[in-house]
Amino acid sequence: MLKVTNYLTKTYGQKDGWTLAAYERDLEGYKTARQVLTSMTKEQVVDEAKKANIRGRGGAGFPMGVKWSFMRPHPTKPAYLVINADEGEPGTHKDRTIMELNPHSVVEGCIIGCYGIGAHVAYIYVRDELHLSKERLWAAIKEARAKGYLGRTPFGKDYPVEVHVHTGAGAYICGEETSLLNSLEGRRGEPRLKPPFPAQAGAFGCPTTVNNLETIAAVPTAFRLGCEEFSKLSTLHDIKDGGVRLFGVNGHVNKPGVHELCVGVTMRELIYDLGGGVLGDRPLLAVIPGGSSTPILRADEKVSAPDEKNPLHKWHDMSVLDVPLGVDTFRGLGTMLGTCCITVMAEGTCPVASMHNLMQFYRHESCGQCTPCREGSAWLLRITEKILDGRGTMEELDQLHDVANSIMGNTICAFGEGTAMPALGFLKKFRKDFEAYVKGEKTKAKNGTLAMGSEFATRMEGH
Ligand SMILES: Cc1cc2nc3c(=O)[nH]c(=O)nc-3n(C[C@H](O)[C@H](O)[C@H](O)COP(=O)(O)O)c2cc1C
Question: What is the Å distance from ligand 1's center to 414 Cα?
């Protein structure tokens, strides 16, 4: 059942929602940080955080509390908390709403996070073109500092905490955590080999936790409610996917937007109850679940989990639209929840044109460091373009699979998979459409529906 909440979004519609006054008035702002810093040890903070079952909101879904527990004090080096607010994933537009409409939740989350992991400094890495986001974060930090919530003795506690905003020039690869760290240090934004992981050697070679902005903004709510209680708000609490989170719905829906909901809501609820249904009352063709890097699901797909041990068994034979949106449930469907901002595609959208649009993006954004990604993304684009132009062959259609498969697992960072997986998804789920182009049954000129593809493209670009 659809459970709309407003733990994070209560300040959203208000004319002073981003100010300290609103945060203190409506969300008991900074009371939780005060309580945590003055009554808990850092070990207790991490143990408590684990109970929240907050799965990282940046895309990979790693449990936040477990990540915090990887931080070990270093004899000579300081620790850092780095907040990822690059938000370059097409179709994803949730972190920006928090920065613009409830920035104090981020600052309070940083205070609790720094204390828990043993850091005194948090950097929030924001892409530069998000002007209002930067302004609101700067203002929030200034207000918190003026009140003594940041600085040498926050809430009177001898545990200095500072929060800084660092701007990035707007490259998708700089959202990848190790590229982000390079960029933060003033280097070229290229991914680093792992290990060492950031907890061992992150920012400036020091132990670092990188959290997505929404992940850290959820922390004050979780600690205010009690982390276990927070987790139980989710219908997927029993499989350790807890709490509430922001769900985005965009693409071909009547009401695109961002909603705060208990984890476990379904795509059907997002599209029809909150998104106002498919644009122009058209049937639904497909959904890309969480940002463009996650493989597409067809609306007519059903869950196939005949084995009772399979966690998806509960939904066996049901439409994928009725499976709760969760990190592990969607992995079970052969896709990913990713950033949890779904892109809706109405019947009539051209899958070939849509894949072409996506491949343009990935080709452009590949940093070029790894050959399989640099060359592979170029070939994926080139061949898809040929097919779309009616010049492709069946052999080349098969080559698309080969190219995508040769990217998988062969790159330094997950950008490679983020390119190859959606390509393989389109090819698997819409093979007939690709074949129709090769056979000349569909062409750009003949395909009257291509406009929908272009419209989709525009929306994806203008996310
Ligand atoms: C190409 C690429 C782009 C990414 N972009 C973002 C991003 O914009 N924001 C983000 O939080 N995570 C992004 N990630 C994921 C981060 O590498 C990292 O997993 C995340 O910031 C960790 O935070 P979390 O555990 O709170 O989700 C990206 C990953 C890849 C491979």
Answer: 10
Mean pLDDT of the chain: 95
Enumerate the domain spans of the chain: 20-232, 237-346, 351-461
Residue 411 region by backbone torsions, left for phi larger than 0, else alpha for psi between -120 and 50, else beta: beta
Specify the residue with its C-alpha closest to ligand 1, atom 2: 176
351-461, which class in CATH? mainly alpha
Coil/strand/helix, residue 204: helix
Full-model pTM: 0.96
What stretches in the chain show pLDDT beneath 70?
A: 445-463
The domain defined by 237-346 carries CATH number 3.10.20.600: yes
Q: What is the pLDDT of residue 445?
A: 67
The three-class DSSP label of residue 162 is strand
Q: Which of 83, 84, 417 to mutate to test the pocket of ligand 1 (most atoms within 8 A of CB)?
A: 84
The CATH class of the 20-232 domain is: alpha beta
Pocket residues: Cβ below 6 A from ligand 1: 56-60, 62, 84, 86-89, 172-173, 175-177, 210-212, 215, 413-415, 418
What would the pLDDT profile of 403-421 be if each residue is shown by its tens digit? 999 999 999 999 999 999 9
Question: Which of 80, 176, 377, 417, when mutated, tests ligand 1's pocket best, judged by the most ligand atoms within 8 Å of its CB?
Answer: 176
Ligand 1, atom nearest to 213 Cα: 11
What is the pLDDT, as a whole number, of residue 452?
A: 40
pLDDT of residue 460: 40
Rg, Å, the chain Cα set = 22
For residue 366, the 8-state DSSP code is -
